[in-house]
Amino acid sequence: MSSSSPSGHLLASVSSALAVLLLLLACVELGDAAAAVGVYRLIQYDLAGAPLGSRAAALNHHAAALPLPAAADLSRSALVAPLLDLPLAFLRDYLADKKYLGGLLILLPKKLNHEPNNEDKGQVKASLAELEQLLLHQQVPYPVYFAFQDDHFDNLLADIRKIASSGQPASATTGGYKLVVSTPEPRKVASPTISNIQGWLPGLKGEGETEQLPTIAIVANYDTFGAAPALSVGSDSNGSGAVALLEIARLFSRLYSNPKTRGKYNLLFGLTSGGPYNYNGTNKWLRSFDQRVRESIDYAICLNSVGSWDNELWMHVSKPPENPYIKQIFEDFSDVSKEMGVSVGIKHKKINVSNPRVAWEHEQFSRFRVTALTLSELSSPPDFLESTGGLYDTRESADAESVIRTVRLVSESLARHIYGLKGKNIDVFAENSSLAINPHYIQSWLDLLSRTPRVAPFLQKNDPFIAALKKELSEHTADVHVQSDVLDGMFTFYDATKATLNVYQVASVTFDLLFLLVIGSYLIILFSFLVITTRGLDDLINIFRRPPSRKYPGTLLVRRARHQDDRRDDPALHSKQTCNFKIFMFDSQCEWLQILQGRNITNFD
Length: 605
Known about the structure:
The strands form four sheets. The chain has an eight-stranded mixed beta sheet with strand order 15-14-16-13-11-12-10-17, with helices on both faces. Strands 1-8-6-5-4-9-19 form a seven-stranded mixed β-barrel. It is α/β, with parallel strands linked by helices and 605 residues long. The chain has helices at 6-32, 88-96, 118-136, 151-164, 235-256, 280-288, 291-296, 324-340, 362-367, 400-418, 439-449, 464-476, 509-534, 537-544, 564-567; strands spanning 34-41, 44-47, 50-54, 59-65, 77-82, 103-108, 139-140, 144-148, 176-181, 193-201, 215-221, 266-272, 297-304, 312-317, 343-348, 372-376, 478-486, 491-493, 498-506, 555-559, 592-597. The chain folds into three domains: 31-112 and 126-188 and 498-506, no CATH class; 193-486, Aminopeptidase; 514-544. It is a single-pass membrane protein. One of its GO terms (cellular component) is endoplasmic reticulum membrane.
């Protein structure tokens, strides 16, 4: 057959290019069938050795949605459920009966407080609070993730329910959607740290005074805890308390910067960590003080959850209200609150020294015999790991006006106490004055904290957020430093708090077979076209023609020797052959001539 023409090569090249283009288009279509979404994993931790939270991270199952088909097997399915559509009784039964789910993806409202009406807001908050407590205090053997609901998830749910309406669950046979999270096995967080930040505004001593000035401490913990660490921003608990502390420090720095208006009290500002963990950071911070410093503290004001109150704030104390110090502080707050048109109530809770758990931050001060109180919008102490800045506590749950009222109440009360203005109707931090409260400052810091998850074990001591707090406190106070310590070993935390969820649209087996048939047909047609254009139709027919069957009783391969006189005397060629298919091989100087049937050959031409 002669070599192919240039036109044949051209056609072959064009056909190959078309084949590559078709494959690329197929890959693009398959790529469009997958979507990548950021998801947030349910926390995994151990409490006193007991495993709690989600104990798995990797996910690779078909998606399912509520309502479920009859007799649905969820052990091989990942359930996708919007928050308000997820029956907590269903989830509680699964956990109690130790039933296995392939996985759970909970869809949260995009804006938790942007609901149509207040009734829906309350329902969302109640559902999230109950869900969070359920998941935090249970061992969940399967992966649980959170994501924000959007149009893509709405379309996904609609498709899943449409498939489920056929009465068959999603599988390799019926097709559907597959949820895949590829992540390594979570590892323990080694030596989680807590960082306390403190700054001083030293008071003014009179001439000849040698005694140490009394100190008033303003304290707020800034860290959070929740079901999803990567979503635990705690705008109200306790972002609002930390922001109020920064603004109070800014206001008094203006007064203390001038010796003429510097008070005769030292002011100590402390941003503490480890609040959700029994205020572990506050305990370590107080232990780090010299005894003389602790004894110099006149009283401490702890700020906790002050971002969503309207008319009533609560003052929680460990000492009886009849105590002279407590009575005086409460009167100072009451006088200012009446002028503001709000009220301050008092709640007394005696601490149990034999019980290591404390309900409020001020109770850690009380254990060191330091008079202290907590100002909070909460009228009663929260349960363990409650109201610690969880899923619902977003920017929309903290009101800047509430923080402003708290700052005004605390600042005016302190100023009247420090400067002896009790009973005088004087507003030290009056509006439109150089000492006025800055709403923009409060708003900006609330926005920042509402974008920053602050679960202490996942904040390194050199984290940019801690550096930002230190820098800001340094702008208004002196002797600022960060105390870093290891969180007590009652808690063990695991990493992998965020992941990427890949959603794949899985075709059914019928589609796969049809696709395989189309591809196979195309390849056969392409092959035939290439053979015809490059070699001819006859060669294509010969490829598919079955060769005739031949049977030989004896086969001998005969060759022409280029040097016959050197080959005729070869004794191997004179032997009689009685077996079938015996082949004699020669060197490269030989070439094959023919195959002879039924003959014995002893000479060569």
